[in-house]
């Protein structure tokens, strides 16, 4: 089950998610995942990243941020966005966000 999160509601929704993962795609088309704090200001995330994440974002700017549920069984926050490389950072402007419930056993 997924619940849409409007971009206007994203700042308040993020309050419960102090960190997440930046997911980029490498030249071999495999996912590259980096843990990052959830700093969101003026409509974008600005993330300090390594060389691989910056190179991936420069070549394939469609990225995803995944913020795991703060409690077992709670909703995770998934944010899709467009990335721009800025020096040692990647800025991500969100395009879509959802709260996603984990699959239930059974």
Mean pLDDT value: 93
Low-confidence runs of at least 5 consecutive residues: none
Q: What's the CATH superfamily, by name? A: Electron Transport, Fmn-binding Protein, Chain A
DSSP helix count? Answer: 2
| SSE string, helices as H and strands as E | EHEEEEHEEE
Alpha carbon gyration radius: 14 Å
CATH topology: Pnp Oxidase, Chain A
- Share of residues in helices: 10-25%
The separation of the N and C termini measures: 15 Å
Structural domain tally: 1
Shape assignment: globular
CATH architecture: Roll
Class, according to the CATH hierarchy?
A: Mainly Beta
Q: How many strand segments?
A: 8
Which structural class should the secondary elements be placed in?
mainly beta
Could you describe the largest sheet, including whether it forms a barrel?
8 strands, antiparallel
What portion of the residues fall into strands of 2 or more residues?
A: over 45%
Please describe what this structure looks like.
- With 106 residues, the protein is mainly beta.
- It has one domain (13-96): Electron Transport, Fmn-binding Protein, Chain A (Pnp Oxidase, Chain A), CATH 2.30.110.
- It has 2 helices and 8 strands, in the order βαββββαβββ.
- A hairpin with a 5-residue loop joins strand 2 and strand 3 (31-37).
- The longest helix is centred in the middle third of the chain and has 9 residues, at 51-59.
- The chain is globular.
- The mean pLDDT is 93.
Tags for this model:
single chain; 106 residues; mainly beta; Pnp Oxidase, Chain A; eight-stranded antiparallel sheet; globular
